[in-house]
Amino acid sequence: MWEAFLLVSTALGGIFVLVFLYLIGTKQYRFSPKVTFTARHVPVHPELKNHSKTFQKEIIPIAENVHVAIGFGLANSILIEGTDCCIIIDTLECDEAAEEVREAFRAITKKPIKAVIITHFHPDHAYGIGCFLDDNPDVIAHETTRKFLEQVANIRSLITYSRGMKQFGSLLGEGMHENSGIGGKLRFGPSNGFKLFNPTVTVSKQLEVTYGGITLEIIHAPGETEDQLMIWWPEKKILFPADNIYTAFPNIYAIRGTMARDPLLWISALDKMLSLQPEILIPQHTRPLSGKAEIKSTITAYRDGIQFIHDQALKWMNQGCNEIETAQKVAECFPNALKSHPYLKEFYGTIKWGTRGIFHHYLGWFGGQPSSLHKLSTLKRSQNIVKVVGNENALFEKALIAMKTKHYQFALEICDVLLESGWTWMNKVRAIKIESLCQLAELAISANARNWYLTTILELEGMEIKPQAPQIKAQITGLKKMEDFFRFLVVRVNPEKLDEGEFLARFCFTDTDEDIFVQLKHGCATLRTGTDFNEGCDLTVKTTSDVWKSVACREVNPITAWMGGGLSIQPHPFKLSTFMSYFDVAQ
Ligand SMILES: [Zn+2]
After folding, report:
1. For position 471, what pLDDT does the model report?
2. Could you tell me the distance, in angstroms and rounded to a whole number, from the CA of residue 175 to the centre of ligand 1?
3. What is the CA(125)–ligand 1 centre distance, in A?
4. What is the pLDDT of residues 472-524, one digit of tens each?
5. 210, 87 in Cβ contact below 8 A?
6. Which of 523, 527, 525, 526 is nearest to 498 (CA)?
């Protein structure tokens, strides 16, 4: 018995020594990086730091009766004071920022606000509107603005939120966030209030308006967005170009995830601006500019910058270059005179991102290489790369070498392969990835890149980015038509739960007088309206829009709402639970 115990102990001791020697001998033991890098101590590129002066918080008076509020939110809000009332251009991104501006404007004039012009649908121009409605003003926007606003607020709200937070760095704390390229900080966190707006006056191509003796021409000028409006005040030769020009390289493609902006439309808008020969230019981001000659040369440089990358991108694409090669070629030959122009510094968009956007605009995702037609899954590809190199330790060593030789981008790419392969030594890779991101953030002149790198570090450290329930609800419950509201559900169908089955539901809304059928078939929810849809329904619900919004957002249980008398359900309440189970609305 005693001999057996000794034998087992010796064997275990031997195994322990062998394991210890193995660990000593392996690179994974020797290369144990310390987590010394963090998003909190990353120096800012000196040019980007200097650019922050552009957003110093103040009210800039122009002429006698125009005031530009800069630095209160991401965009500018503008007050134009007429004889007996005022006009506001844009309302910032949240109630808190808008209220500060409103207060500052009240100190200038107590005249009522009779018109609010929203230059385009982006939240930083529109979501603070609730603070400007006291005097029941006309709310003026392009005829398509509401449609674009609802896309952001509804069917792609989740991803728009998380990517927007990364691009603008809104979740970065004190000392981490420098600026957002075209403004200070986007104030759109979980604690900020906001409101979706409904235009009361819409613009198609051009509209002349007069308030308080001031006549403005509101002109549709698609560029940075399709619904962009610029405002021309002929009497004073003041042009409000909205976001078609700012003191930063044009964001032809926004990394938060947008369609590439059509460069030719944007150039046309800038040409239109030139033709007006403005003497004062007041954009919705960055500072006003005055002087006819100065404005002309600035707009010319801006339009030429866009035309250059557009034309050169096509030149290289036509020669068969792929997306990355095209971007590289265009960046290499971008003229120095444009590169050094203060309005074309890459604080926001960049030459390469814009060029890649143009590549996608014309050719879509396929770069022409047959290997990209049926790509391996991310997991399979990364596991195969690990095998080709030898093993995870060998690849990890390559990441360390890349880091030590200052090839931070390559180190980052290797880290992603290791993380995607599911290697168990994740913390070591994470540490190297964080160090790569810190180094790249320090080198970045683009605020968007810096913010994205640093927010990714916070994610690697455990932060989760997702909109809070009140933010989602505030957006979708702001949708006016119930048909629009149902689109929120349509993009959340779970085809596995529906399987091969079919389901037809009818919703009658007593307050909005809408009758909506939802047909579930082939993994799709198809919306139909009207009463001429005569197939037999599996479920009929009669209710009000507010009750249904609470049920659909999972705020109120359908059975509870039914018991409270807010819903009439045929043939029985559990059918509504079945219907709801076909949608993933978990937050
Ligand atoms: Zn903007």
Report:
1. 65
2. 24
3. 6
4. 666 666 777 788 888 888 888 998 887 778 899 999 999 888 889 999 999 89
5. no
6. 523
Sheet with 58-62: list strands edge to edge. 58-62, 66-70, 77-81, 86-89, 113-117, 138-142, 201-203
Q: Distance from the CA of 120 to the center of ligand 1, in angstroms?
A: 8
Q: What is the pLDDT of residues 233-288, one digit of tens each?
A: 999 999 999 999 999 999 999 999 988 999 999 999 999 999 999 999 999 999 99
Where in 72-205 does DSSP place strands (E)?
77-81, 86-89, 113-117, 138-142, 201-203
pLDDT-derived band at 556, boundaries 50, 70, 90: confident
Separation of CA 580 and ligand 1 centre (Å): 37
Closest of 225, 303, 293 to residue 270, by C-alpha: 303
Task: Give percent of the chain above pLDDT 70.
Answer: 90
The tens digit of pLDDT for each residue in 89-144 reads 999 999 999 999 999 999 999 999 999 999 999 999 999 999 999 999 999 999 99
Specify the length of the chain in residues: 587
Nearby residues of 542 by Cβ (< 8 Å), 6 or more positions away:
508, 510, 567, 568, 569
Q: Stretch 11-22: mean pLDDT, rounded?
A: 47
Separation of CA 124 and ligand 1 centre (Å): 6
Ligand 1: distance of its center to the CA of 183 in Å?
Answer: 9
Domains recognised in the chain with CATH numbers: 47-291 (3.60.15.30), 375-461 (1.25.40.880), 479-582 (3.30.1050.10)
Q: How far is the CA of 396 from the centre of ligand 1 (A)?
A: 41
Alpha carbon of 155 to ligand 1 centroid (Å)? 21
Split at pLDDT 50, 70, 90, the class of 35 is very low
Ligand 1 centroid–CA 109 distance in Å is 26
pLDDT at 534: 60
Ligand 1 center from residue 196 Cα (angstroms):
16
**Ligand 1 midpoint to CA 165 (Å):** 15
* Model pLDDT, residue 560: 87
Whether the pLDDT of residue 26 is over 60: the answer is: no
Centre of ligand 1 from the C-alpha of residue 85, in Å = 26
Q: Where are the alpha helices (DSSP H) in 421-477?
A: 426-443, 447-460, 469-476
CA of residue 209 to ligand 1 center, whole Å: 23
Check residue 63 and give left, alpha or beta (phi > 0: left; psi -120 to 50: alpha).
left
Distance 93 CA to ligand 1 centre (A): 10
Output the CA 427–ligand 1 centroid distance in Å: 38
Which parts of 334-407 fold into alpha helices (H)?
A: 336-339, 351-363, 378-389, 392-404
Max distance between CA atoms of the chain, in angstroms, equals 108
Distance 285 CA to ligand 1 centre (A): 6
Token pair for 539: 């479920």
Q: In a 3-state reduction of DSSP, which class is residue 339?
A: helix
